[in-house]
Amino acid sequence: MMTFLLITVAGLGALLVVGAGSPIVARLVQRYTEQIDVNAGLEGGGQAIGYAERLLIYVFVLADAPTAIGFLVTAKSIFRFGDVTGKDKRKLAEYIIIGTLTSFAYAVTASYGIRLLLRLIG
Q1: Is the pLDDT of residue 76 over 90?
Q2: Cα 62 from Cα 69, distance rounded (Å)
Q3: Three-state helix/strand/coil letters over 18-78
Q4: Does pLDDT of 39 surpass 70?
Q5: CA–CA separation, 16 vs 110, rounded Å?
Q6: What is the spatial distance between Cα 65 and Cα 83, in angstroms, rounded to a whole number?
Q7: Distance (Å, rounded) from C-alpha 17 to C-alpha 55?
Q8: Burial (CB count within 10 angstroms: exposed 0-12, middle 13-18, buried 19+), residue 35
C-alpha cells in the first residue's frame, strides 16, 4: 500500500511540476511576451521545451542528481544563444533568459517540495 502511495504522489508531482508549470511560467512572463514576436519559432515549441526541461529537472531532483541541472542550463544556453546574438535580438534574448530562469526556479522548487513529501511519506 505504501508503494502505491509513493508512486501516486510521484506521478501527481510530475503533473504539478511539468503540467502546472506551463501556465504559471506563462503568467509570470506575460508582460514581456507582449514586447516581442513570440511566434517567430515553432508553434508551441517553447512550451514543449519547457515541459521537457521541467520533467528533466524533476527526474534529476528525485534521482538526487542536482548537478545534472547545471548541465541542462549549459546545454540550453549553448543551443539558444547562438540564435539570439546581436543588438536587434536583445529583447528576445532577455525574454528567453527570463522564461528559462522562471521555469527552472519553479521546477526546482516544486521538485524539492515533492521530494520532501515523498521522504516524509516513505
Answers
A1: no
A2: 12
A3: HHCHHHHHHHHCHHHHCCCCHHHCCCCHHHHHHHHHHHHHHHHHHCCCCHHHHHHHHHHHH
A4: no
A5: 8
A6: 29
A7: 7
A8: exposed
For the residues 20-44, what does the mean pLDDT come to? Answer: 83
Q: Are 102 and 23 in contact (CB under 8 A)?
A: no
The torsion defined by the Cα of 99, 51, 24 and 60, in degrees rounded to 10, comes to -90
Question: pLDDT by residue (tens digit) across 46-72?
Answer: 889 899 999 999 999 999 999 999 988
Distances 77 to 15, 22, 73, 104, 120 between C-alpha atoms, Å:
25, 20, 6, 13, 35
Q: How far is CA 65 from CA 37, 82, 101, in A?
A: 36, 28, 19
Q: What is the pTM of this model?
A: 0.86
Hey, what's the torsion of the CAs at 108, 20, 10, 58, to 10 degrees?
Answer: -30
- The cell for 59 is 527526474
Domain boundaries in the chain? 2-121
